[in-house]
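Reading a protein record of the kind used here takes little practice once its layout is understood. Each number in the token line that follows is a code from a learned vocabulary of backbone shapes. One such record is shown here in full, so that the layout can be seen directly:
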Amino acid sequence: MTHAIVIGAGVVGTSIAFRLTQAGIRVTILEAGYVGGGTSGASFAWINANNKPPRAYHDLNVAGMHSHAALADEFGRAPWWHRSGNIEWYLDDAKRATQREKIGRLRSWGYEAEWLTEAQLGDLEPDINPAAVGGAPVAFYPSEGWVDPVVYAHAMVDAAVRHGAVLRTGVNVDRLQRAGARVTGVRCDGGERLGADVVVNCAGHWANHIVDPDMRIPESPTRGFLVFTAPAPTCLRAILHAPQCHVRPDGGGRLMLHIEETDRTTTGTTLPETLPAARDVVRHAAMVLPVIRGVEPEAVRVGTRPIPADSYPAVGPVKGIGGYYLAVSHSAVTLAPFLGRAVATEVAHDRSEPLLAPYRPDRFAAARGAATTA
């Protein structure tokens, strides 16, 4: 029986591991921390194809959205998946014009996008402060939502283990083992060596750290700073993309908050280090949801988004290297269930998935060659 090692137990690695076991592959999952504890657990986890041109990338993300819905049918329940819809408005005239163009494009592609009247917005989310909207056109995307990525990853791991996979946490992969142009397994910290017929690298922004230069891809990772409130007195259901703050529910009455500028300006990683910045994010959110004024931040999470240099996924084998498959993507939470099936089909059955054709790692071959020379 073919043996595959999957590196990383985030949303992508666990999805692929589950589908590989279904395909009859013997799977070992190696995770340095805990399931869902890397970038997956520090993600806004917005499921969407909202602003992801060109059409090929949009279609890939729509396939990811459909795969999330299909999982709910397959599992009978999906407590991790919340099809809440997404509400968006802008106060800047230029951004409003861009929004109108985007909605026209999305509608022409068959994507659900509509405009809300002030009364409809109030009925949908009564806690939103009309003054924060300022009469701006309000867009609503009803098919979008969010996922609890840690719950999702655990569900995929449990399904994989039921099919025979082995999960090992607290295992740091130091380097891939190679025999010439073929990957033969991994070497772990402490010297342990594990052999495999194929290694699937789902290590996110750590993916380049464990491979040789001729296997690396250029990256442009970014930092994500998320603030979690204490349980808040709001009935908010939808995701909000407001100029003041991005907000979504996070279960247990808590809210998850995000401001892009704070990603770039906050250097700490724990709540004590970042308390002033976290409180400022809550203050901005309270401009939109006045009912949460006075609510304190309860936690922060800081993640590094694994983004290939051209911002699109890198999924597939690396030309000239046998026994190796890479799966790295910024839109990982949206794409995870689709990638699970697609990668398993490619690895187990050697059948190419057409939607992945534009996103093969080999488009970075020139950059890899320069890195090898260096």
